[in-house]
Amino acid sequence: MSGMKTDIKLIDENGIRTDGRKFDELRPIKIEVGVLERADGSAYIEWGENKILAAVYGPREVFPKHLQDASKAIVRARYNMAAFSVDERKRPGPDRRSVELSMVISNALESVVLAEQFPRTSIDVFIEVLQSDAGTRIAGLTAASVALVDAGIPMRDLIAGCAAGKVGGQVVLDLNKDEDNFGEADLPIAIIPKTKEIVLLQMDGNMSLEELDKGMDLAYNASMKVYELQKEALRNKYLKVLEEGE
Ligand code: ADP
Q1: What is the Cα–Cα distance from 149 to 34, expressed in whole angstroms?
Q2: pLDDT, position 63
Q3: Does the predicted TM-score (pTM) go above 0.85?
Q4: What does pLDDT average to over the chain?
């Protein structure tokens, strides 16, 4: 969110956005479960132009050992953007942004994993952004929670999310890269659908209390749609496994 004034028209006279969507429309989302041979669990998500892989390892022995928790498993997510995932080559390796995103994603996942069942272990979640177009923290988190289920990790529920924001003076759902760059505000949220608890909430830019309310509403409803897609992806994978076993 640059807050920068530009001449780019983000919403036209008919209320249509740069990629043809209406204000409350999600980008197309495709989720595939179990795409990696060597991970304990994995998922691949395409969310608009975002392409992201999530891989889960564990529960396994904690390394380094002093990080062990005698009462529960530790959940460690690592969010990484590939050097080729953005327009200009991104400098490889962790930076402030990826460290922060890794932390908020870890915290969100920790809120659903039944970690007490696996004391002294770690559950490691790798989120690799292969192509990015805004909304990657939520898309990565969405894929990661599906990958945790694929790894057989006991959980209270999935985590589902979506961002809302303000663009061209209007509150809209699911910002793309241009909207994120040249819009007024970005508001990613993630929830535990079953309990309606919010487990991630961030805001960048500025919007009024009323707009925030509207944005939360849009993002919440979209999160429930994302939840259905996650469950459908899991059903597809495991129905296939069942059929093949017959
Ligand atoms: P999110 O991807 O969760 O929306 P941001 O709002 O921080 O996170 O970033 C929005 C988009 O900006 C990213 O999806 C990515 O396309 C781009 N971006 C972020 N960091 C960089 C970077 N270091 N170099 C180039 N592009 C970046």
Answers
A1: 10
A2: 86
A3: yes
A4: 95
Query: Rounded CA gap, 92 and 38, in Å?
Result: 24
**43 alpha carbon – ligand 1 mean position (Å):** 21
pLDDT tens-place string over residues 21-44: 999 999 999 999 999 999 999 999
What is the C-alpha to C-alpha distance for residues 225 and 118, in angstroms, rounded to an integer?
A: 31
- Alpha-carbon dihedral sign for residues 144, 226, 110, 1: positive
The number of C-alpha atoms within 13 Å of 74 and in the hemisphere containing its C-beta is 16
235 alpha carbon – ligand 1 mean position (Å): 31
Two tokens, residue 19: 């990629």
Question: Rounded to whole angstroms, what are the CA distances from 42 to 36, 78, 111, 142, 148?
Answer: 6, 14, 19, 12, 7
Phi, psi of 104 (to 5 degrees): -65, -35
Phi, psi of 152 (to 5 degrees): 80, 20
- Which residue has its alpha carbon closest to ligand 1 atom 6? 134
Pocket of ligand 1 (CB under 6 A): 86, 90, 97, 132-137, 177, 180, 186
**Phi/psi at 210 (nearest 5 deg)?**
-65, -45
Contact in structure between 45 and 56 (CB atoms under 8 Å) = no
How far does residue 67's CA lie from ligand 1's centre (Å)? Answer: 30
Going by pLDDT thresholds of 50, 70 and 90, the confidence category of residue 82 is: very high
Please determine, for residue 162, whether its predicted confidence score (pLDDT) is greater than 80: yes
